[in-house]
């Protein structure tokens, strides 16, 4: 049948042909695919074929018909899970939101509706199911519905829903679940945190101490590990002008933290949990204050109500608690206020002077004096900056004028230097050296003329200017022994070697004098002297000669003569550097590769 010719009666007849649970799936498809029907007709379809409610006579008045359940609790949970799966499978979030509105919204938005109690209980079960399965689409739709509901009615129904979630599902409360909740639906997490803080602020809301500890742990873990996600989502919703009373959890969270010492909790562990909670709030506020996004100024101004901190002071001052509790409240209050006033766009515009005048209790704490002094310094700096604006402007203009003057002066100097450099480049290469030599010659000629005119010797006059160090240096250079002038033939080479070896001889004068006494006149040889075979050298002299010969052999081994170029050698190189490298490789590895090279030459290599 064509969708354009369908009527609500046709759809009802088609749905009657299905049995549970197929009728539920068919009804969900009909609600999604038939937007041409009225909201009332689609809501009636959901009531009859999704939740399987039927009309029956009232127990008190048989003539009055009321809606009753026809399914047991297990079947109801099955229906709610089918709804959850259907919403999660929708690719378009707007389509899923429209189906959710048709199923729940029309009834839950009117507390006087006859089906309100049934639908309210169903919704609580559905919410528990969605949280258990961590369904992102469903949680986002519910959070959006919370925002819509808070604009049309009060926040009381939402508070009841969150209270039910806290009381009935506290067993699900763990750091893992709240972290997953922040990741899956940050918007729903904002609503949950805000309503939880509101409930814990209510003194008439009674919970077991262990439950409160668990809730505080949840809030602490969420603030610590999902800081950036919560801040970005909160900023996005505030800039989108969503309902601040529902999603802005910061005021209620600060109120819960500051006024906690006034509550009559006796548990030491709970106090410890609240201390951790206070630390996480300070860290969260600091991250929020240091947020440098473009819209941070608008976001930070809208975070706290204008009289929020004054109201907290009023509650603390009117409290009848002990002085220790009040002092703890003041410390928490001032620490949070110090963080809020850190940024250039503070979260609170309240002045410390006015705060101390209206609430004298705050002046007892040292932190108040520090904040007051810091605020006074900031005001003085602002006033000084405003009074010095014109002076700074005049100084900047004068400095700018001076910079313009320097720039023009540098431009002129650079131009002159470029001309001079171009002139120097046009001169010969050794022009400066020639000019310097001519200048020196002119100075020497001038000094010679002056010395001749005075009747003095020019050389002696010049030597009068020499220093003692220069004279010593010149003498050492003249007296240098055995200057290495090289050699031109083998005769000069032999003579050089003889001179060098003779210069290394160290005569033994004691042995010489002893031998002179033994030989007497024969020590000085004559033409007829015969001393061959008569002299026996000492062992020390022999060792000295052996050592000298070994040094000569070692030096000869290190000497490398120039090798002649072999024209017939194989050319296995591409340039001179490669030839030297190949020779070095052959010297180290030639003996290992000789057989391989021979095989390659013969053509027998494997």
Automatic annotation (TrEMBL):
Q: Does the keyword Cell division apply?
A: no
Which terms are listed as keywords in the entry? mRNA processing, mRNA splicing, Nucleus, Spliceosome
Chief subcellular location: nucleus
Q: Where in the cell is it found?
A: Nucleus
One GO cellular component term, please give it: post-mRNA release spliceosomal complex
**InterPro entries membership:** INTS15, mRNA_splic_SYF2
Q: Does the keyword Nucleus apply?
A: yes
For biological process, the GO terms are: mRNA processing; RNA splicing
Source domain of life is Eukaryota
**PANTHER family recorded for this chain?**
GCIP-INTERACTING PROTEIN P29, PRE-MRNA-SPLICING FACTOR SYF2
Give the protein family.
Answer: Belongs to the SYF2 family.
Name-wise, this protein is: Pre-mRNA-splicing factor SYF2
């Amino acid at each position: 049948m064509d969708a354009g010719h369908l009527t609500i009666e046709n759809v009802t007849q088609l749905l009657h042909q299905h049995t549970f649970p197929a009728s539920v799936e068919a009804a969900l498809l009909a609600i999604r695919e038939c937007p041409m029907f009225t909201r009332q007709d689609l809501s009636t379809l959901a009531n009859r074929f999704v939740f399987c409610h039927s009309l029956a006579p009232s127990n008190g008045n048989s003539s009055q018909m009321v809606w009753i359940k026809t399914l047991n609790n297990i079947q109801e949970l099955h229906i709610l899970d089918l709804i959850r799966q259907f919403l999660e499978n929708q690719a378009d979030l707007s389509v899923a939101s429209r189906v959710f509105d048709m199923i729940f919204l029309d009834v839950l938005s009117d507390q006087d509706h006859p089906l309100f109690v049934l639908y309210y209980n169903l919704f609580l079960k559905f919410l528990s199911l969605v949280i258990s399965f961590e369904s992102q689409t469903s949680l986002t739709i519910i959070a959006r519905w919370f925002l819509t509901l808070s604009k049309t009615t009060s926040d009381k129904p939402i508070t009841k829903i969150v209270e039910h979630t806290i009381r009935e599902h506290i067993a699900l409360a763990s750091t893992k679940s709240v972290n997953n909740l922040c990741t899956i639906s940050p918007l729903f997490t904002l609503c949950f945190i805000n309503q939880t803080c509101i409930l814990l602020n209510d003194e008439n809301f009674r919970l077991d101490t262990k439950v409160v500890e668990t809730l505080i742990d949840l809030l602490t873990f969420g603030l610590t590990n999902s800081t950036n996600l919560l801040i970005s989502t909160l900023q996005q919703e505030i800039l989108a002008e969503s309902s601040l009373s529902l999603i802005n959890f910061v005021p209620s969270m600060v109120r819960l933290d500051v006024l906690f010492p006034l509550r009559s909790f006796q548990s030491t562990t709970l106090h410890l949990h609240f201390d951790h909670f206070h630390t996480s709030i300070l860290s969260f506020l600091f991250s929020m204050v240091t947020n440098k996004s473009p819209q941070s100024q608008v976001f930070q101004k809208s975070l706290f109500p204008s009289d929020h901190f004054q109201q907290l002071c009023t509650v603390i001052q009117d409290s009848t608690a002990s002085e220790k509790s009040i002092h703890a409240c003041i410390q928490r209050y001032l620490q949070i206020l110090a963080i809020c006033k850190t940024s250039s766009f503070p979260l609170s515009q309240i002045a410390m002077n006015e705060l101390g005048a209206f609430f004298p209790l705050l002046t007892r704490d040292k932190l108040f004096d520090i904040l007051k002094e810091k605020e006074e310094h900031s005001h003085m700096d602002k006033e000084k900056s405003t009074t010095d604006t014109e002076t700074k402007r005049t100084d900047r203009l004068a400095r700018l004028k001076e910079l313009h003057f320097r720039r023009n002066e540098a431009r002129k100097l650079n131009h002159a230097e470029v001309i001079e450099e171009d002139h120097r480049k046009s001169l010969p290469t050794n022009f400066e050296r020639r000019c310097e030599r001519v200048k020196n010659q002119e100075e020497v000629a001038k000094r010679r003329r002056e010395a001749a005119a005075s009747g003095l010797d020019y050389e002696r006059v010049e030597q009068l200017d020499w220093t003692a160090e220069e004279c010593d240096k010149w003498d050492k250079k003249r007296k240098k022994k055995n200057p290495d002038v090289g050699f031109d033939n083998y005769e000069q080479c032999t003579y050089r070697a003889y001179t060098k070896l003779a210069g290394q001889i160290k005569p033994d004068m004691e042995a010489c004098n002893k031998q002179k006494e033994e030989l007497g006149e024969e020590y000085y040889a004559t033409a007829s002297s015969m001393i061959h075979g008569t002299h026996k050298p000492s062992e020390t002299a022999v060792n000295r000669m052996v050592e000298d010969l070994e040094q000569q052999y070692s030096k000869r081994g290190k000497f490398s003569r120039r090798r002649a170029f072999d024209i017939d050698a194989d050319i296995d190189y591409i340039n001179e550097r490669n030839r030297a490298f190949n020779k070095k490789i052959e010297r180290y590895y030639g003996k290992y590769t000789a057989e391989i090279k021979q095989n390659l030459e013969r053509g027998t290599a494997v």
